[in-house]
């Protein structure tokens, strides 16, 4: 299986920004659980501008839209076009792929493989149409296996929307990747994989599995309470993750959140 790839002209370390779960709507003042999601996204992107003077690419890891409308993806494009770097998009359980594709002009946002001198980023679809949980299809598993095998000389980061390991939250752990064991079998075959990265869970986590870094990232809007048995919203602010990928395979990363802004949240809602 072959696909288009994007080459980043970067010979040293690679600086990536991950934003996830933007949950944009057709109206500009559309909201999730009371929070105006375009406003919160713009607050996060303003923070990126303040804190990250040099970045090489932006990863947007699913649930870009809440309502699946073409206009919601246009809002995202407008916000990200202000950055002089490419952005690469993944679908989440709330996304409409046809609407995403219509907004993908000039056609780079849905590229699946991004490579630099020392690293590659592989973007994998975990969406199951009409379902909240995720699954990696056999064709996606084959694509991942072949892509990783093609360049064993490159340190590799693999990203998708849904989580492949338990987060310690009963309700969240029912809606992760249902065949995560098959995904991890592929990862285990390739010793140059350094990191798995996802969204979906609206919270920060940092784990290790067999020397592979496992990372989840806060939403640019509402956060979910870690360790909760049932659906629960956290009080933490929207945020993003930065990643610095070094030529020798080391990875530095951190999460930064918006400060000094009060975001309205409806804590009475028991689902999203």
Automatic annotation (TrEMBL):
CDD domains per the record? MPP_GpdQ
Domain (Calcineurin-like phosphoesterase): residue spans on this chain: 15-203
Gene3D superfamilies linked to this entry: 3.60.21.10
Statement: the UniProt record of this protein carries the keyword Plastid: no
PANTHER family according to UniProt: CYCLIC NUCLEOTIDE PHOSPHODIESTERASE CBUA0032-RELATED (PTHR42988:SF2), PHOSPHOHYDROLASE (PTHR42988)
Q: What is the similarity comment for this entry?
A: Belongs to the cyclic nucleotide phosphodiesterase class-III family.
Specify the protein name.
3',5'-cyclic-AMP phosphodiesterase
């Amino acid at each position: 299986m072959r696909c288009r790839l994007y080459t980043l002209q970067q010979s040293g370390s690679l600086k990536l920004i991950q934003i996830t779960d933007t949950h944009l709507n057709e109206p500009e003042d559309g909201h999730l659980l009371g929070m105006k999601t375009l406003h919160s996204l713009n607050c996060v992107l303003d923070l990126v501008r303040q804190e990250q003077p040099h970045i090489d690419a932006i990863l947007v890891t699913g649930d870009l839209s809440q309502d699946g409308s073409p206009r919601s993806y246009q809002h995202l494009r407008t916000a990200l076009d202000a950055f002089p770097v490419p952005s690469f998009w993944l679908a989440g359980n709330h996304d409409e792929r046809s609407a995403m594709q219509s907004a993908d002009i000039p056609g780079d946002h849905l590229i699946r493989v991004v490579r630099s001198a020392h690293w590659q980023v592989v973007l994998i679809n975990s969406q199951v149409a009409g379902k909240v949980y995720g699954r990696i299809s056999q064709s996606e598993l084959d694509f991942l296996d072949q892509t990783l095998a093609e360049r064993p000389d490159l340190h590799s980061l693999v990203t998708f929307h849904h989580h492949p390991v338990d987060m310690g939250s009963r309700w969240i752990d029912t809606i992760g990747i249902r065949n995560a064991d098959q995904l991890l079998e592929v990862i285990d075959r390739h010793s140059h994989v350094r990191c798995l990265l996802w969204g979906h869970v609206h919270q920060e986590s940092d784990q290790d599995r067999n020397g592979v870094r496992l990372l989840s990232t806060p939403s640019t809007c509402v956060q979910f309470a870690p360790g909760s048995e049932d659906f629960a919203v956290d009080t933490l602010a929207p945020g993003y993750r930065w990643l610095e990928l070094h030529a020798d395979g080391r990875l530095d990363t951190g999460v930064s959140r918006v400060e000094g802004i009060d975001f309205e949240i409806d804590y009475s809602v028991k689902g999203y």
